């Protein structure tokens, strides 16, 4: 009789990227080869995950440059939020499907957990509450799985904020981005007409997502002016989803967004925190009689949610949507991967390989 295979031994130390202070990745991060491996209390609701891949956030390096609050958080912080991997250990209060050693999972920390308490994902082993972890089918693409938490949750929340459905006309600015590409696919699955905006070099990729029309913003001196010329009158949009953060796109939106429409912005790639907050105050609260834009504006931000992660993983497993993976980098090349994101040429998620499939 063959005895069961014992669970793999969890090493006492691991490799982990540590943020030692404020600043860009090149000066604030160091790779430790002997960081203590986290442990899971037997009676806890925590899961210890052997990490396969970590998906980088487009604003991850910007967050590293924010000042820390005095007296708050760990002296060293592990960066990044979302990842995929395999269950290595679990507490007794973890749901049964997450207690199986070796189970494929996707997971994500909250922004507060990473920024204030240093509990990030860029390590070979990560301890995370079961509430932030979802079980995946065996054989699930783990590179793709590493990016479902943040962009998936954001895409679904954007969809619910407007309630996109059959007959709606939707503009997605940044349709080749991780969130924009996923959102365009979900809108199409809901029966909407989708116009995707991206660079011309990404046209084939964006059309491959199923969009009805493609707009190359680099072919026009002014994107808002072009949209006015082509999508005014009866062709105005019911919703505009800006995944890049182009202020002029909202300011001139009455030319191509219906009066009943909504403009949803998930942030700004080129904007500082101060500029983002200033735009939010002006766009959302400036009265029309003082020059405010007569369209509903939403600045959208959300934390990863387990239910939404489950929905996205099911849609991926059914072949209805896919998370775009721009590139995969070795763990040692994290700083170079952040530099690649800074070029703004990434098409989808930039992923770091730690343990692989």
Characterization of this structure:
This protein is α/β, with parallel strands linked by helices. It folds into two domains: 13-135 and 324-353, Medium-chain alcohol dehydrogenases, catalytic domain (Quinone Oxidoreductase, Chain A, domain 1, Alpha-Beta Complex), CATH 3.90.180; 150-299, Rossmann fold (3-Layer(aba) Sandwich), CATH 3.40.50. Helices cover 27% and strands 26% of the residues. It contains twelve helices and 15 strands. The strands form three sheets. Strands 3, 4, 5, 6, 7, 14 and 15 form a seven-stranded mixed sheet that branches. A six-stranded parallel sheet has the order 10-9-8-11-12-13. Helix 7 (203-207) links the parallel strand 9 (193-198) and strand 10. The radius of gyration is 21 Å and the shape is globular. The mean pLDDT is 86.
Determine the N-to-C terminus distance. 30 Å
CATH topology of the largest domain: Quinone Oxidoreductase, Chain A, domain 1
Rounded to the nearest angstrom, the radius of gyration is 21 Å
Number of helices: 12
Tell me the name of the CATH class of the largest domain: Alpha Beta
Broad shape: globular
Q: Helicity, in percent?
A: 25-40%
Give me the count of strands: 15
Low-confidence stretches: none
CATH superfamily of the largest domain: Medium-chain alcohol dehydrogenases, catalytic domain
Strand content: 25-35%
Query: Please, what is the average pLDDT?
Result: 86
User: What's the architecture of the largest domain in CATH terms?
Assistant: Alpha-Beta Complex
What structural class do you assign from the helix and strand content?
Answer: alpha/beta
GO molecular function: oxidoreductase activity
Domain Enoyl reductase (ER): 26-352
Protein name: Enoyl reductase (ER) domain-containing protein
InterPro entries: ADH-like_N, ER, GroES-like_sf, Lipid_raft_assoc_Zn_ADH, NAD(P)-bd_dom_sf
């Amino acid at each position: 009789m063959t005895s069961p295979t014992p669970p793999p031994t969890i090493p006492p130390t691991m490799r982990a990227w540590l943020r030692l202070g404020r600043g860009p990745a090149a000066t604030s991060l160091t790779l430790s080869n002997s960081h203590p491996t986290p442990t899971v209390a037997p009676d806890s609701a925590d899961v210890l995950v052997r990490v396969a891949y970590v998906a980088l956030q487009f604003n991850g390096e910007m967050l590293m440059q924010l000042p820390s609050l005095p007296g708050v958080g760990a002296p060293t912080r592990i960066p990044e939020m979302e990842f995929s991997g395999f269950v290595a250990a679990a507490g007794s209060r973890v749901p049964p499907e997450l207690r199986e050693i070796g189970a494929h999972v996707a997971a994500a920390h909250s922004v507060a957990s990473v920024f204030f308490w240093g509990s990030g994902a860029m390590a070979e082993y990560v301890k995370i509450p079961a509430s932030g972890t979802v079980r995946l089918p065996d054989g699930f693409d783990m590179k793709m799985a590493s990016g479902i938490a943040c962009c998936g949750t954001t895409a679904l929340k954007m969809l619910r904020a407007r309630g996109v459905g059959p007959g709606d006309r939707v503009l997605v600015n940044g349709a080749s981005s991780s969130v924009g590409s996923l959102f365009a696919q979900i809108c199409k699955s809901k029966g909407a007409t989708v116009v995707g905006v991206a660079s011309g070099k990404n046209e084939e990729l964006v059309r491959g997502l199923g969009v009805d029309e493609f707009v190359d913003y680099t072919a026009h001196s002014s994107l808002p002016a072009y949209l006015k010329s082509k999508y005014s009158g009866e062709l105005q949009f019911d919703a505009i989803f800006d995944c890049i953060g182009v202020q002029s796109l909202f300011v001139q939106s009455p030319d191509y967004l219906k009066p009943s429409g909504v403009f949803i912005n998930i942030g700004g790639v080129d904007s500082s925190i101060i500029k983002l907050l200033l735009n939010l105050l002006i766009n959302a609260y400036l009265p029309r009689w003082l020059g405010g834009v007569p369209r509903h504006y939403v600045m959208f931000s959300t934390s990863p949610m387990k239910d939404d992660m489950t929905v996205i993983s099911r849609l991926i497993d059914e072949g209805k949507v896919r998370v775009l993976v721009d590139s995969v980098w070795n763990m040692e090349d994290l700083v170079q991967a952040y530099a690649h994101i800074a070029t703004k040429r990434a098409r989808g998620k930039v992923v770091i390989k730690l343990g692989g499939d």
